[in-house]
Design goal:
This protein is mostly beta strands and 284 residues long. Helix content is 5%, strand content 48%. It has a single domain, classed as Porin (Beta Barrel). The relative contact order is 0.18.
Length: 284
């Protein structure tokens, strides 16, 4: 099964993103791709929004729901949305996606996807200014690990390019209750480079919200606003440890991510970030 497990890119924030979104295919006795259409439902909780290893100064925990219909040809359609738990109102984001994956052989595969996200006005999310995302990815399974190279072009009010290199190793730890289940862990290290034009809009909207507080006060916000970089820089170095339990039709996963923000990345947060994710996937 291929499922959105980390909201960095393909980014929907995840997101995303997304992801930006991140793909995983359990081996062994876990969920496998079929020669017929499959529908995968996913639910995920995270203790903070994660945009290519970056987040806002305010912690934004959220819950996410996603549905993906995958055809045997490799074409798939997805729809989802998530709610920030400390922000009231309606949904914090909804998205629609279209993509295509192709396995060239047992080692090499590639994919192309487009995601359109919808954000409410004055969204506190970093990626709200770029609701469109085109993602191109390729992966190679070596005998000892898996290498993934992905490129994401996010555009809207701003235009940003992200490149991500991921090296991971799927380790099967054995069964738990019977021979039909599997426990596995896939530690990964990820290097993310990109532009940061999206910060321009984020900082401008944040300043408007701050100025709007306090019975019509027009005093400027007191915090320092960081200027966004227009050049391509290393944004983050991410270390992930997801642990999953899978059976024939479902998978539960708990993951921890430690991110180190790049030295040249413009950020208002600490240079070290921690993320905890809990996810459940069911495939029909």
């Amino acid at each position: 099964m291929k499922a959105i497990a980390w909201l960095t890119p393909a980014p929907i924030l995840l997101l995303f993103f997304c992801n930006s979104l991140y793909a995983q295919q359990p081996s062994g006795t876990g969920i496998q791709e079929n020669e017929k259409p499959t529908l995968t439902l996913a639910a995920l909780y995270s203790n903070n929004v994660n945009y290519y290893g970056q987040s806002t100064a305010e912690r934004l925990p959220y819950v996410l729901a996603n549905a993906t219909l995958r055809l045997p040809s490799g074409l798939y359609f997805s729809a989802g949305g998530y709610q920030l738990l400390n922000v009231g109102g309606g949904l914090s984001e909804t998205d629609l996606g279209l993509g295509y994956d192709h396995d060239f052989n047992e080692h090499f595969s590639a994919g192309l996807a487009y995601t359109r996200s919808f954000f409410p006005k004055n969204s506190p999310l970093l990626q709200a200014s770029n609701p469109n995302n085109i993602s191109l990815s390729s992966s190679y399974n070596w005998a000892w690990s898996k290498s993934v190279l992905s490129a994401d072009y996010a555009f809207g009010e701003e235009n940003d390019l992200f490149l991500t290199i991921t090296q991971s190793k799927d380790i099967e730890l054995g069964t738990l209750f019977s021979s039909e289940d599997m426990i596995s862990v896939e530690p990964a290290i990820e290097f993310v480079g990109g532009t940061q034009h999206f910060l321009t809009t984020y900082q401008r909207e944040k300043e408007k919200r701050n100025n709007g507080k306090g019975q019509g006060s027009n005093k400027p916000a007191t915090e320092t606003i960081t200027e966004s970089h227009t050049s391509f820089n290393m944004l983050s170095y991410n270390f992930r440890i997801p642990v999953s339990y899978s059976r024939a039709s479902y998978m539960a996963e708990a993951g921890y991510q430690f991110s180190v923000i790049g030295r040249d990345a413009a950020t208002e947060t600490k240079r070290y970030q921690h993320y905890l994710n809990l996810a459940f996937y069911y495939q029909f």
